[in-house]
Amino acid sequence: MSVINYAKGIEVKDPYDVIVVGAGSAGSTAAIAAARMGAKTLLIERLPFLGGISTAVLDTFYGYYTPGKQATKIVGGIADDVVKELNVYNACFERPNTFGAGTGITYHPEYLKVVWEALVAKAGCHILLNAWVQDVVKEDGRITGLIVSTKIGQVYYTAKQFIDTTGDADIVYLAGFDYELAGELEPAQTLTTTFKMVNVDAAKRKAVSKEAFHQLMEQAAESGKYDLPRKEGSDHITPVDGMMATIMTRLKSYQVTDGKTINATDPEFLSRAEMKGRLQALEYIRFLKDYVPGYEKAALSTFGIQIGIRETRRVYGEYRLTEEDVLLAKQFDDQIGLCGAPMEDHHDGEDTKWKYLPEGKTVGIPYRTLIPRNTRNILVAGRCFSASHVAHSSVRSMAQCMAMGEAAGVASALCAEKNISPVALDTRLLKQYLLQQGAIIKAP
Ligand SMILES: Cc1cc2nc3c(=O)[nH]c(=O)nc-3n(C[C@H](O)[C@H](O)[C@H](O)COP(=O)(O)OP(=O)(O)OC[C@H]3O[C@@H](n4cnc5c(N)ncnc54)[C@H](O)[C@@H]3O)c2cc1C
Predict the structure, then answer these.
(1) Same domain? 18 vs 161
(2) How far is 205 from 201, CA to CA, in rounded Å?
(3) 52 and 158 assigned to the same domain
(4) Which domain holds residue 98?
(5) Do residue 299 and residue 318 come from a single domain?
(6) Is 384 in the same domain as 278?
(7) Which listed site, 83, 130, 175, 328, has its alpha carbon 20 to 30 Å from 360?
(8) Nearest residue CA, atom 38 of ligand 1?
(9) Is the Cβ–Cβ distance between 237 and 202 less than 8 Å?
(10) 3-state secondary structure of 160
(11) Which of 398, 400, 402, 404 is the best mutation target for the ligand 1 pocket, counting ligand atoms within 8 Å of the beta carbon and taking the most?
(12) What does the pLDDT look like over 57-101, one tens digit per residue?
């Protein structure tokens, strides 16, 4: 626990009902939900734009639909508003798929930045960008405020309720609550530097099947002239003609030295990974241009703004979702959302391991997985929610992060209004609000 050094003249801001830290898919949605409920809400983000991985790294939402023969829509509410607003700019389209996480919604991430900003601001939430939560102040197990680093120095923000949507569970970590560090108990999912190519002849590329594409990658790697650790990376079309996006590179996400695990929350480790990721991407670009029809005249457009991090810290919550829950498509009384995506483990090897739920089935996401245990006024949402490594590999797609964010936002607003802890909230009331807002919480 920290003590604020008032002697240093730290600026103290007026209190909020709810502060959301981290504006990824989970945090932006949580902020919209809390503000729409009438809570005085602040959204704090360290980057100069909203969206987190959705705008800094990727361009396809998965999880809106179940995979398999028939795609059933299983996420609604604010997630629908996001797609509706993207459509206003003609900035997204569906990519039907029966395999993997199912049908995806590919969007233009620059438009998504504007869409997130518009939805959050319209809901009445105050946005603070380029602001990094650096420490937490606690009293009697309750978080009272956050110390935020800005260009004018440290600023102190207080609230009744907090939502940790930092992806890395930074607030939970800084407050000294319980979490599992990815890589500590089981191997953690790898890191990926995404990149986009322009001037691609998409029609020519389309003529190459997925299997043939992977064979080319294999051949190039076997030639010894290219360093390609992953042999089944993917590329896909985007809303921009001739531009392809990739999820191809693969870097180890943790290391264990003298029994101590470090991962992408370690600044030294992360710095090396960011630089190695870009070099590895250049190898894949060389391969694409040399081997893959359609890429002959292609050029690098952009790297992802930051390396893609799948998992770092996952909290220990009032409930921890397990592999068995997912495989059995378990339903819960307090579920606030659904997930039909398979467990998709991007492990250290050359391929990706997939384990599917029974055809057309979904697992419920319990509200309790958003409540870090032994806490009084904090919820989490998104990729740091309470799940085992394997269960997390299913329930981490952006649509599920949005569903969790919406529930956390509504719950925090209700807790702030009623002056109660998240664990004391009547989940029937929470579910009632979510249903009114178009969320889908009951398995089809
Ligand atoms: C390479 C890769 C490929 C993937 N592919 C897909 C895909 O195709 N489709 C899909 O649906 N899902 C995919 N996923 C999973 C999905 O993208 C993530 O699980 C999801 O985006 C996580 O959202 P989030 O809101 O929990 O976290 P994030 O998007 O990581 O957001 C966290 C936010 O918190 C901010 N933040 C962190 N710490 C602080 C702090 N201390 N102070 C202030 N701000 C802070 C960050 O800047 C960030 O904006 C992929 C993930 C990766 C890494």
Answers:
(1) yes
(2) 6
(3) yes
(4) 6-186+312-436
(5) no
(6) no
(7) 83
(8) 166
(9) yes
(10) strand
(11) 398
(12) 999 999 999 999 999 999 999 999 999 999 999 999 999 988 888
